[in-house]
Write a structure and sequence with these properties.
single chain, 0% strand
């Protein structure tokens, strides 16, 4: 079916959302590098989170205006929502550096940042294939995203294990644990995107 002038291009918006989230992930990785205090990146990441919200709202408005969509409207909504969750958790993590008064990242946070960038890169590539309806090729990326989520689980477990084995100040330990958990939620949200994509593959491939 040809797209009418003025119709919402949902694939284009999903690509914009995934690209924006990847930019945020890379910025978060830079924030974890130690080159500057993490809080220095807070405003820029908040701007990217707002941009992501705007793209999601554009998708919602588009869905309210059309009857025929290139995918099930529930799939489009779910993909938009889960992409929004990924960038939300990234932004929430950097905000915690501010209000929990944490001045430095650690090795686990740096590794988490790499994992999140990796997952977001695969999401973007999967969305490019989705827009071209190359469903069978998407699985290569969803498998990698699932691996990233497994790595996120491992990092959280090891990080928390270290906290309790090498206890320092309990208040500081609690704050670091909260950061690990927020970062693990970001990798979970990436896996949620992959799961939706896998469901689409089963129905359309």
């Amino acid at each position: 079916m040809f797209q009418k002038k003025g119709d919402t291009d949902f694939f284009k918006l999903l690509l914009e959302s995934s690209d924006n989230t990847l930019v945020a992930a890379k910025m978060f990785r830079e924030a974890m590098s130690g080159n500057k205090p993490p809080v220095d990146y807070m405003d820029a990441l908040k701007d990217l989170e707002h941009k992501g919200d705007n793209i999601t709202h554009m998708i919602y408005r588009g869905l309210n205006k059309v009857f025929i969509t290139p995918l099930d409207r529930e799939d489009i909504m779910d993909l938009a929502n889960k992409m929004d969750d990924v960038i939300d958790y990234i932004e929430e993590t950097i905000a915690r550096f501010d209000y929990l008064n944490i001045e430095h990242s650690d090795d686990y946070m740096k590794q988490f940042a790499e994992v999140i960038v990796d997952a977001c890169e695969h999401i973007l590539e999967a969305f490019k294939l989705l827009s071209k309806k190359k469903y069978n090729q998407i699985s290569e990326h969803t498998v990698k995203i699932n691996s990233c989520e497994n790595e996120g689980d491992r990092l959280m477990r090891e990080g928390i294990r270290k906290i309790f084995r090498e206890q320092k100040d309990p208040y500081t330990d609690f704050k670091i644990k909260e950061l690990y958990e927020c970062l693990e939620q970001a990798t979970d949200a990436c896996e949620d995107v992959a799961n939706i994509l896998e469901s689409i593959i089963l129905r359309y491939a």
